[in-house]
Amino acid sequence: MVEGVGHAVDLLVIGAGPAGARAALRAHACGLKVLLVDENHDAGGQVYRPLPAGFSRSAGAPRSTEARAGDHLRAALRNAGVDCRFGHKVWNIGADLRTDLIGPDGSVSWQPRALLVATGTTERVVPFEGWTLPGVMGLAAATILLKSQNMLPGRRTLVAGSGPLLLAVADGILKAGGAVAAVVDLASRAEWLRALPALAGRPDLLWRGLQWQAKLRLAGVPVLYRHGVHAAEATNDGLRVQVHAVDATGRPLADGARRTIEANCLAVGHGLVPATDVTRLLRARHRYAAERGGWIAETDEDGRTSVAGVYLAGDGAGIAGAAAAGAHGELAALACAADLGRIGKAAHANERAGLLRSWTRPARFGHAMAGLMALREGAVAGIAGSTIVCRCEDVTRAEIDAAAREGARDLNQLKAWTRCGMGPCQGRSCGDVAGALLAPHAGSREAVGCFTGRAPLRPVSLAEVAGDYTYADIPIPKAAPL
Ligand SMILES: Cc1cc2nc3c(=O)[nH]c(=O)nc-3n(C[C@H](O)[C@H](O)[C@H](O)COP(=O)(O)OP(=O)(O)OC[C@H]3O[C@@H](n4cnc5c(N)ncnc54)[C@H](O)[C@@H]3O)c2cc1C
After folding, report:
1. Domains in the chain: ranges and CATH
2. Ligand 1: distance of its center to the CA of 165 in Å?
3. Chunked in runs of 10, what are the mean pLDDT values of the chain (482 residues)?
4. Helix, strand or coil for residue 243?
5. Cα–Cα distance between 152 and 265 in angstroms, integer?
6. Nearest to 304 by CA among 24, 36, 114
7. Is there an atom of ligand 1 within 6 Å of 67 CB?
8. Is the CB of 168 under 6 A from ligand 1?
C-alpha cells in the first residue's frame, strides 16, 4: 500500500476483452508496471469469452475461431507475466484515479498513474409488450449461453432485431442442434447490400456471414427483412410473438404484413451501446454519435480522453467490433507509454503508424456493422404506453411521457422524476432508449444528455465495501471544540 491510499502501478487497465488485454500486453512490453482487471474469471471479454471456471473442453472437441483466438490471448498474458486481477469488479474511481475493486478477498484499492478504460458495450433492446417475460432474452445474452455453456436458448427460438448478431446467433443455434423459428431483421436486404463495399475490407468475416446465410437457407429458416417484433405473450408451452412489417425507421407500417410466430424462446437485440459508466464517472467530455452506438467519450486518435491520464479503447470508444478492438487497445497503450516517458517520440511514431494501418480495415467493417444496428427512431416511437422501459424500476413509456409533459427535459431530471435508471443496472439497459423517448420533447439527444456517472459502477454490498472489522477499530472523532 502507498500511504494507505492504494497499491501503486503505472497503468491500470479496466476490461480484459481484446482491447484491454492487448493494451495490457503492449504497455507491459513498453516497460510499464501494468495491472489488468476484469470482473470475469479470465480474459477474453464478450467475444473471446472463456469457459466458466471449472469447465474444460472434451478432448478432440472442435474449437471455433473465436475460442482459438481467446486461448491465444490468455496464453499471451500468462507468458508475458502481466499482473491480472480476474473476478474483480471496479466499483469506484476517484478524481486522482484511485481505483477501488471488489474481488473474492474483499475490497482493495490501487493508485495508478494512468487509467485505460476498455469496458466494451451493453446490449440494447428496444422494449415491446412482453419483453420482460421468461423466455425472452437478449441476442448477445444468447451468445453467452451458446459460447460458454454450449446451451441452447430454447428448443425453438425466434431470432429478431438488427445487426450481425442475428446471423451469428441463428447459426450458433443450428450448430448446437436447435431449431430457429425465423430470423426477423429490421434492416432491408438493400441495406445489407449497401454495406457490402465496407464489409469487403474483411473478406474472411464477409465470407463467414455469407456461409451463415447459406446455412439458414439450407435449413429452411424464413428470414423476414424489414420486420420487427411488435409484442410477445406467454402460452402454455412458450411464446406467441407478433411480428410486423416496418419502414426504414423501424416504425410498424399501418397497412403492412403481420404474422404470428410460435416459439419457446425469443432472442432479440437492437445493437450495442458503448459502456460510458467509467468515463461519465470521471466527468470526461462526451458526444452523441448514433452511428457509433450512442454517447461516447471524446478522444483523439490514440484514445486520450479529455481527462488527463485517462485513455479509452475498444467498443467503449464507439462500436467498431472485436477485430478492431485489439489494435485500438495497443494504440492507447502506446500513447500512454509515450506520455509517461517510457518510449521515445521516434519509436512511438513508428509503432503507431503500423497499428493505425492494422486498425483501419477492421474498423471500417465494424463501423458498417454498427450502422446496421444503430437505434431506429421509428422503433422507439412505436413503443406502447403500457410497456416497461426501465425494467429495474418498472417505469413505463407512459410515465416517461408524463414526466416530459410536466417539464423533465434531460435524463437526470427524468431519473429524479420517475426513478428511470436508478436501479441496480444504473441505466445501462434503459438509458439509451429513455434518451430517445425524451429527445422529441427536449429537441435533440444532445439536449437530453446522459445519466451523470455515479459510484457504485457495479452493485456492491456494504459488507463487501466495509470488509471485516470490530467496533473497536472504528475511529471515533474527538468532539469539536465549542
Ligand atoms: C453480451 C455480448 C455478447 C457479444 N457477443 C459477440 C459475439 O458473439 N461475436 C462478436 O463478434 N461480437 C460480440 N459482441 C460484441 C463484442 O463484444 C465486441 O465487439 C468486442 O468484444 C469488443 O471488445 P472490447 O475489448 O472493446 O470489449 P469486451 O470484449 O466487451 O470487454 C470488456 C470487458 O470489460 C469488463 N468490464 C466492464 N466493466 C467492468 C468493471 N466495472 N469492472 C471490471 N471489469 C469490467 C467486462 O467484464 C469485459 O470482459 C458481444 C457484445 C456483448 C455485450
Report:
1. 7-55+64-121+273-371 (3.50.50.60), 125-270 (3.50.50.60), 383-448 (1.10.10)
2. 13
3. 68 98 98 97 93 77 85 97 97 96 93 98 97 96 89 96 94 95 96 85 85 94 97 96 97 91 97 97 97 96 97 97 95 98 95 94 90 94 97 97 95 97 94 97 96 94 83 83 76
4. strand
5. 10
6. 114
7. no
8. yes
